[in-house]
Design goal:
18% strand, seven-stranded mixed sheet, three-stranded antiparallel sheet, alpha/beta, 10 strands, Rossmann fold
């Protein structure tokens, strides 16, 4: 696994990314908080610079393994005491799963639309959602398989994403961080996705398989569940329920942001994170 030291001064802050992204995408967010926290951001399995074997099942318990591996690494390099954690989407679910498995790992958590769904009638947790983000079924898993994986240059990749949804809502410096962290330059000068489309698809397909929802009440650390505008199907729809089930949960709503909130307006979300942790 790759771990990015994003710098800063103060308590250790762990930043975990959403499906398809990478640790580097948090760099502008971390810069906003550099005077308060020392930020670290891993490339979770299948993403960024992490080296991942092919045909991994990508059960989401594995992302909790990744989080705890990073925690153990930081502990071995002088970081003491409970950490602070901010997670986006899948990254938020990974933090919650890690804290459930090893209580006391985090002093506080801030999760922006974590992918944690209640059990569906007659099935497992969130079976009909099928994926991270919004919508029903496995449309995100299917869409990932059709994702364009190679561009002539970093610049071409940036221009492509900047002009079409869903990534056109990302702030320019965040999008640049994603392109340079999420793509690898090939010998012929082209750039290709580090997160293989088949791996991203499998991550989405496994998104309903964890049981974080059933154990939310076991988390005693304060947790802020943040959400963007209302979405009838995605994580925003269940965010109030998550905050209510947590022992020390609170809800924060950004009506003008979407599921990519921390990447759309990293400065504002970072300021809210600092305020939540100060409480």
């Amino acid at each position: 696994m790759a771990l990015h030291d994003l710098g800063g001064h103060g308590p250790a802050l762990l930043l975990t990314h959403a499906t398809g992204f990478c640790g580097a995408v948090w760099r502008p967010f971390a810069q906003r908080l550099a005077g308060r926290y020392h930020a670290f951001a891993p490339d979770l399995r299948g993403h960024g610079e992490s080296v991942t074997p092919e045909r991994l099942d990508f059960h989401w318990d594995g992302f909790a393994d990744d989080v705890l591996a990073v925690v153990d690494h930081l502990r071995g390099h002088g970081v003491e005491g409970p950490l602070l954690g901010v997670g986006h989407s899948k990254g938020g679910a990974a933090l919650l799963l890690a804290e459930q498995r090893r209580p006391g790992t985090f002093a506080r958590l801030y999760c922006f639309e974590p992918v944690v769904f209640p059990p569906m009638p007659g099935g497992g947790a969130g079976e009909d959602t099928g994926a991270e983000g919004s919508g029903r079924g496995n449309h995100l898993a299917e869409g990932a398989l059709r994702r364009r994986a190679t561009f002539a240059s970093f610049e071409e990749a940036f221009d492509n994403f900047a002009t079409k949804p869903p990534l056109d809502v990302l702030r320019a410096d965040v999008l640049e961080a994603y392109v340079h962290g999420g793509f690898r330059r090939q010998d012929d000068g082209t750039v290709t996705l580090r997160c293989r489309p088949q791996d991203e698809s499998q991550v989405y397909r496994m998104g309903a398989g964890h049981d974080a929802f059933a154990h939310l009440a076991e988390i005693v650390a304060p947790v802020t569940i943040a959400t963007g505008r209302k979405d009838p199907y995605g994580p925003a729809a269940v965010a109030p329920m998550l905050a209510e089930r947590l022992t020390r949960g609170e809800l924060e709503v950004f009506d003008d942001l979407g599921h990519f909130g921390p990447l759309e307006d990293p400065d504002r979300v970072a300021d809210h994170v600092a305020a939540a942790f100060a409480r």
